[in-house]
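hey m, so remember when u said the tokens were messed up on ur end? i reran from scratch. heres the input so u can diff it against urs
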Amino acid sequence: MTDRCEYKQKGCGGCPLLGRAYAEQLAQKQRRVEKLLGKFGPVEPILGMETPWNYRNKAIATFGTDPRGRLILGIYARGTHRVVPVQGCRLQNESLNQVLEAVLAAAKACRWTAYDEDKGTGLVRHVLLRHSRTTGQVLVTLVTPTPQLPGSRNFITRLRALAPQVSGVVQNLNPRRTSAVLGTQEKLLWGRPAVKDTLCGQEFLISSRSFYQVNPVQTERLYALALQAAALTGKERVVDAYCGIGTIGLCAAPHAGQVVGVELNPEAARDAAANARRNGAANARFYQEDATQWLTRQAAEGQKADVIFLDPPRAGSTPEFLRAAAAMKPSRMVYVSCDPTTQARDLELLTRLGYRMERAWPVDLFPHTEHVETVVLLSKLNTKQHIEVELNLDELDLTSAESKATYDEIKAYVLEKHGLKVSSLYISQVKRKYGLDVGQNYNLSKKEDAKVPQCPPEKEAAIMDALKHFQMI
């Protein structure tokens, strides 16, 4: 298949990497992930697609008007609100392309007009489609600025004749002058308000506003990696944060003791609970709440977790969430991200909180675009294992290592890089764990019954970083 696309030449910005060999695209994404995450641990080779075309199960198109005043349906030109008419997008499932053509034909037959952002006039703004790989059915959502949609019955009749795979038509009301596609109110015009899809052996209902990964083939590989990283035995208490409609948590449920999911979006949280019932996941419960607030309260109550999955939005997680997650002391965290830049920022804090990145797996969920998905496994630092893996005492020249940095130099480094003040006592405790001579015996008190404070995990991680910086370990 050729990499040329006439719509890219006309300004469509949906596929910025189209035109580059697919192997080159993967290499570029691999380099980016290694640059951002490689300092935390090993990065595995990126998982690309065997056939990186027509993979999208979701399509969004905008109504517009061509120079002759005729209704068109397409994609905004990059950096503008000019609609580029597109037929047969090569990233979308072929069935979605067929339904988009049918939507445009039916809308023209009804003499519908495109919404004008400047004037605030017109009947239709956007159309959003969801495709089920399992059933082949397509859900159509028409976005309108007002509840009035004259001729909607005729539209549905013509659409069904042109595209029999359509199983439902929903009207979404979005009166705001905003770049957001969907509004908050919907009504069902015909058929069913969702399509049913299967992922990793679990069944999910997908509505217009559901968060559901757009590439089902690569998503199954992504979730398989996440479950492999979690290493569940059937006994663990698992937290699924930013859970959406429950996809990761429900895929984990057959292998866990208990799954608890939390999601801010009320519709998604309801869908997650319904999907749990649909799949008979009696050990899964879902809550509608902000993930940071919920996890902070759980940690304050002394609740624990064995494994935490987090799949936050592109902006990443919050420091408060990460601190609460660490306070729940999971042995493993599995961090799924659509933006390795914000993920790297969050890993900096998790490292200081006593976790280390064991491995990262890049997955190409979005061929021909600049986006890449990553799965990162973090484990709680285990001193004995860490020494065994990272340090061979028989081969270490202690005399050389001990002379690398003074206590004051270590303190200065930790304060400058991590913003933490550490005592000589804490430094000596960490040095002892790594078989380094502490010089003075800071661990002993003059009082025989005195309690010696132990270095907190966050400060221990910072001191370890300093020891590595000065090549002492």
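this time it looks ok to me. The CA atoms of residues 40 and 341 lie 13 Å apart. if urs says something different then somethings off w ur setup not the seq
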